[in-house]
Amino acid sequence: MQKTILFVVLLAVTNLSIGARRGWAHGVVGDYVFLEPLITQDPTPANELDILQPSWVKDSGANNYSIAFSVEKVLWIDGTEMPRFSMGIGGGWQHQSPYLGPNQQGFFGLTTFAKCALLYSLKHEFLTSLALQLQLPTGNTGIQSSSHTALGPVFLWEKGMGDLPDWSLLKYLRPFGIQSDFGYVPAIGGPTNHHMFAGAVIEYSLPYLSNNVHDIGLKWPLRNLYFFNEFNYDQLIRGPSGQTFPTILVTPGLAYLSYHFEFALGTQLALNQAAVSGNHAAKLGLLDIFYDSFVPRLGNWTINKGFPE
Question: To the nearest 10°, the Cα dihedral for 207, 212, 216, 218?
Fold first, then answer.
């Protein structure tokens, strides 16, 4: 109920429809505005604050409640004002309520990253980037996934379908977008938790439909909605016996985007037997603040351009 009230208040305060590319603070490649995914990492360097990432996961042994957060800052933009390099940090807190035994709670370890957009095409709404991810075991024992520092690369890309032909029925596929990541983050100084993961998001943008394909008369807030589905693979390549099986999950959901923030909700489902024991039911959420829309002078500062005029 509290989440519903928060969502309604935020929508009322930011009653804004999606407009031209120049007005956006996040995820813009050409005419397409990409989502901040719930699980898959976002390929676009951006100024954003994931201020609230709540989740509830019911598995075979416990109910798990967590709240995560992260912040990212663009540090370099090119001559076309396209963000090319960013850095960020994230963490979180989790409460575990097992069916047998005492509860436990504490913080995750910290995750830091540096992300560089390697290649992009505004005309084809395409971007690819490479990130270096560092996981630090600064959290509580029993809560964080590993007691070893881990470091590794993450390859990311995204593509909007806006360059499809503007034919009678085919044009309605143009609001589709795809985002994807693939990462391998091995432990440093320890034999466990050599982590490999991959994800893909398929999204359909009603703002793009209204502004770039055909205005079918959608009003706020429907005009600002995205439908999406995430597919995620996760596996320990090396680890304790019985814990190295891959988990494959799907997360359908709905997102609302405005100039200032994104609010998204999703339901996570297991797609393979190894994932079932760890995911009987799950609900995920995200409140992502595009802070450079509130403090543009400070938020849009970069190393190479300084403060905007």
Answer: 20
How many structural domains is the chain composed of?
1
Contact by Cβ (8 Å): 220, 207: no
- For residues 37 and 76, what is the distance between their CA atoms, to the nearest angstrom? 23
Would residue 253 count as lying in a domain? yes
Residues 80-118: tens digit of each pLDDT: 889 999 999 999 888 888 888 888 888 888 899 999 999
214 lies in which domain range? Answer: 2-299
Token pair, residue 206, equals: 């009603």
Flag whether 305 is in a domain: no
pTM here?
0.85
